[in-house]
Amino acid sequence: MIIMKDVYKTYPNGVTALNGISVDINQGEFVYIVGPSGAGKSTFVKLMYREVEPTRGQLMINNMDLSDLKEKNVPHFRREIGVIFQDFKLLSKLSVYENIAFALEVIEESPKNIRKRVMDVLDLVGLKNKARFLPDELSGGEQQRVSIARAIVNHPKIVIADEPTGNLDPETSWEIMKVFEEINARGTTILMATHSKEIVNSIKKRVIAIEDGLIVRDQHRGEYGYES
């Protein structure tokens, strides 16, 4: 599903964030990306949804070579990827339903299909009764559930989550992780960058640790391994 071969990323200011990373991630895996601040985690994640491009090396995602992906093909590629952010990134003037539906409207799905798929994902994240609410009428945990629903409404093969519990209290974080586990159980590959030692050590999954732009650990059912 994801193949990285000797990937480097150097920014225009001369900072090298990734220093020759190689890794394979299979369909259906749940992988934590951990490491100290400034280690290269965010760059690693941003490469996955083409927010940044590798300086050199090969990156294949879902049989698409991102090292050679033309700009006109980026929107099509991103339809195969669901992305979830720490700060939710919801459209404040649109309702919960409209925020999620927007992802389907841009690809010109029929109104009938949009309604069914939006209500299905709202049911999955436990917010079917709040479809008409605006984001600022929801708690932080509920807003994150909306962002998860928006990310998965296109049935992506991969979900990228960048610190998805970073702004949430511990109880809400565990609830969000239950949603991720359910999505993963349905066959979706999940890649989650996190600083949460408690989550990583309690919900055992594959752990890829990055330090100084290099993968220093890759463990099946690993542990966090850093002070958090």
Structural summary, described in words:
The chain is an alpha/beta fold and 228 residues long. The chain has one domain: Rossmann fold, CATH 3.40.50.300. It has helices at 41-48, 74-78, 96-105, 111-124, 140-152, 170-185, 197-202, and strands at 2-10, 16-25, 30-34, 56-61, 64-65, 81-85, 158-162, 189-193, 206-211, 214-219. α3 crosses α4, α3 packs parallel to α5 and α5 packs parallel to α6. Keywords: ATP-binding, Cell cycle, Cell division, Cell membrane, Membrane, Nucleotide-binding, Transport. Part of the ABC transporter FtsEX involved in cellular division.
* Broad CATH class: Alpha Beta
Question: How many strand segments?
Answer: 10
What is the terminal-to-terminal distance?
30 Å
Structural class: alpha/beta
Mean pLDDT: 92
Could you tell me the CATH topology label. Answer: Rossmann fold
Give me the Rg, rounded. Answer: 17 Å
Binned strand content: 25-35%
Low-confidence stretches: none
Let me know the CATH homologous superfamily: P-loop containing nucleotide triphosphate hydrolases
Largest sheet: 6 strands, mixed
Assign the CATH architecture.
3-Layer(aba) Sandwich
Global shape: globular
Helix content: 25-40%
Q: Can you write the helix and strand succession as a string?
A: EEEHEEHEHHHEHEHEE
Give the strand order of the largest sheet, numbering strands 1, 2, ... along the chain: 6-7-8-3-9-10
Question: Which structural traits does this protein have?
Answer:
alpha/beta, Rossmann fold, 6-stranded mixed sheet, 7 helices, 26% strand
